[in-house]
Structure formats: structure tokens, C-alpha cells
């Protein structure tokens, strides 16, 4: 519990510091309080859920996992860490902009919250006999957290997004996993690119702004000891927030929804070629 109290204190201090900026900015104390309160409440609930899902009954001395962590999921979990950190940072940046922060304040504040939460999870993993602290997870977290910050300063990166999608695998249906987020054979991580924005003056300029491409990665036949295969996909990608004429509130919802890869035509290109009319 000391780790939980420390992390909550860091979050509280973060929001107190942000609220102190209200005198010199247009930040709404009410909106910031809503975001802060929801964050702390979600943090407490998330701790309870993860404690039951991952950490219950397995507490030990703090240790670093330098072996099994890099084998059990063929490092698909590292893509998961980067993607979740990216999703959290991107979502919080939008929320902080909603409070009245400018874009730079919003994205850096979001990066701070995501870093605090992801670091807390890793430290707690360090006391878990099953998991252990992972420097690889920390590095993946920072990649995901850094990308929204870099996109703020380098517009050439803005056509790119990290996404996730889920579809229950046979292992999950057979009850081998308690939650689908633990099953990397049920999970696909995606790098999407908006072709219209990537090359607006080239031959791609006529591609609709709501249509993109995505490269996906999943795994199969995992044995937990380094065995299994990587799966790579190429898919169409729908960015519904770019449909013309949407009201602002719906556009914001669709922009957040784009962090989840919606079902679309796809082809698996590795380890063998498989065509999908629609892949989830």
C-alpha cells in the first residue's frame, strides 16, 4: 500500500501544481478538478482490479526480471506497453486541452500522468513473484509516452497513431486467461498512417482523409518459454473523426475512438498469407 499512497500523492501534487497556473491562464478549475478526481478514482479502482488480476498472493522482495519477461510473449507485451502509454497520453492531452490548457501544457501534463501511472505499475510488478520489474517495459512505456509529445513539436509525425484491437483467441475461449488484455494471441497492436496527411501534395492527395493504412502485429502458439510465431498484418484504417461536417463533440469522440483499430479488410503477410474480408 505504500507504493499506492506514494503514487496517489504524486498525482495529487501534479494537479495542485497545475491548478496554481489558473491565475495566469484560461485553465478551468472546475474542469481540471473533474479530470483530477476521475483520474484518482480510476487509479484506486485500477489498483484493486490489477491487484486481483496480477498481484494477489504473490508478493515478494523487489526484483528485476531479466529473462522470462523477454520470452513469454515474444515481446508482444512491449508493444502493448508502448500502445497503452500512447493511448493514455493522447487521451489525457485531449482532456487537459478541454480544461483550457494550451497544447504544450496539455501534452506535457498528460505525459507526466501517464509516466506516474506506468511507473507505479512497474514498481508494483517488482514485488510480484510472477512478474518482476522490467526495464524493457519502462523503455516501451517511454516510447509510447514520448510519441504524442514529439507529434506536438514535429508535425511530420502527426499522420501516425498507435492502436489496439482485440478478438478472442481459442486459448481465451478455453479459459486459459483471466482477462483478454493478458492474452497476446487475442490482441493486435497497430501502427496506422493517414496517407492523405502524410503526402498531401503527392498522388495520394485524392485519398479521403478518413481512409488510411495500418500495420498490425500479433502472436500465436505461445508456450511461455520463447516458442510461438509472430503475425504481421496490413489493413485499411478508418479515421471517422476526419469525416467532413461532424459536430465538434462527435469529432472529439471519433478521434478518441481512432485509438482502437476498427474492423477492416486486411491481409496477413507473415508467417503466411491469409486474406480477411474483415479482420477484428
In short:
The chain is α+β, with helices and mostly antiparallel strands.
As for the number of domains, it is 2
The overall average pLDDT, rounded, is 88
The portion of residues assigned to helices is 40-55%
Category by helix and strand content? alpha+beta
Beginning-to-end CA distance, first to last residue = 38 Å
Low-confidence stretches: 20-24
Global outline: globular
Describe what you observe in this structure.
By secondary structure, the protein is α+β, with helices and mostly antiparallel strands. The chain folds into 2 domains: 155 residues, no CATH class; 122 residues, no CATH class. It is 46% helix and 17% strand. It contains 8 helices and 6 strands, in the order αααααβαβαββαββ. A 6-stranded antiparallel sheet has the order 1-2-3-4-5-6. α3 runs antiparallel to α4. The radius of gyration is 20 Å and the shape is globular. The two termini are 38 Å apart. About 2% of the residues have low confidence.
Topology:
Layout: H1 2-19, H2 29-55, H3 76-98, H4 103-125, H5 135-153, E1 160-166, H6 170-173, E2 187-193, H7 195-198, E3 211-220, E4 229-238, H8 248-257, E5 264-270, E6 274-279
Antiparallel strand pairs: 1-2, 2-3, 3-4, 4-5, 5-6
Amino acid at each position: 500500500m505504500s507504493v499506492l499512497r506514494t503514487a496517489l500523492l504524486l498525482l495529487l501534487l501534479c494537479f495542485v501544481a497545475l491548478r496554481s497556473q489558473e491565475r495566469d491562464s484560461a485553465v478551468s478549475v472546475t474542469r481540471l478538478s473533474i479530470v483530477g478526481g476521475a483520474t484518482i478514482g480510476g487509479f484506486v479502482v485500477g489498483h484493486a482490479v490489477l491487484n486481483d488480476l496480477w498481484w494477489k498472493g504473490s508478493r515478494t522482495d523487489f526484483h528485476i526480471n531479466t529473462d522470462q519477461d523477454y520470452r513469454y510473449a515474444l515481446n508482444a507485451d512491449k508493444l502493448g506497453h508502448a500502445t497503452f502509454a500512447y493511448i493514455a497520453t493522447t487521451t489525457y492531452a485531449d482532456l487537459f486541452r478541454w480544461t483550457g490548457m494550451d497544447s504544450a501544457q496539455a501534452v506535457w501534463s498528460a505525459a507526466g500522468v501517464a509516466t506516474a501511472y506506468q511507473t507505479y505499475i512497474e514498481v508494483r510488478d517488482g514485488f510480484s513473484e510472477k512478474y518482476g520489474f522490467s526495464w524493457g517495459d519502462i523503455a516501451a512505456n517511454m516510447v509510447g509516452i514520448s510519441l504524442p509529445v514529439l507529434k506536438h513539436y514535429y508535425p511530420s509525425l502527426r499522420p501516425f497513431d498507435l492502436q489496439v484491437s482485440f478478438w478472442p483467441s481459442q486459448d481465451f475461449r478455453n479459459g486459459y486467461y483471466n482477462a483478454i488484455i493478458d492474452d497476446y494471441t487475442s490482441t493486435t497492436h497497430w501502427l496506422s498512417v493517414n496517407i492523405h496527411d502524410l503526402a498531401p501534395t503527392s498522388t495520394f492527395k485524392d485519398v479521403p482523409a478518413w481512409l488510411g493504412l495500418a500495420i498490425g502485429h500479433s502472436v500465436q502458439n505461445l508456450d511461455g518459454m520463447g516458442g510461438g510465431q509472430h503475425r504481421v498484418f496490413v489493413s485499411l484504417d478508418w479515421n471517422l473523426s476526419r469525416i467532413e461536417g461532424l459536430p465538434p463533440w462527435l469529432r472529439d469522440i471519433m478521434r478518441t475512438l481512432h485509438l482502437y483499430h476498427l474492423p477492416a479488410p486486411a491481409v496477413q503477410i507473415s508467417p503466411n498469407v491469409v486474406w480477411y474480408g474483415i479482420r477484428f
